[in-house]
Design a protein that fits this description.
The chain is of the alpha/beta class. Helix content is 43%, strand content 13%. The chain has six helices and five strands.
Amino acid sequence: MLMFTPRPTEVHPRVLQAMARPLQNPDLDPDFFTFYDALCEKTKKILRTRSDVILHSTEGIIGLEAAVASLISPGEKVLTISSGIYGDGFADFVRMYEGKPVIVKFPYNDIVKPEEVERVLEKEKDIEVATLVHCETPSGTLNPLREIGKICSDHGFYPYSRCS
């Protein structure tokens, strides 16, 4: 019988047996590549995309940094839309990779207002990339991704256009 109370956790015997096996290095295990490729293909179906999917086994903030590192060049202006900690993190990463963030900032726990994004894009004509966090998990706010994506598209740049 397993107990589910706060204290040292009881581990099922099958898990203990699996943990006793020698460790594998996924970087060197050919079965890992087969598994990873199949998982990426399944994820593409779930996301309904033909674009490449890259899966990270890390905390989400590393994915934000990877996106900035992959998509911007030094000196580029990047629209960073922020309504919380992770949106602010995008601006920090843009600076770290020598981009120039154009910040559209909303108070913590507020939802991004698409009309404000539109106003900034009308003013700033040479923005190359836009960042937006759909769900700011610390506050639980959901930002209007579709509306903001359409505004970005109307201004001549598209989500993931550099990834295709």
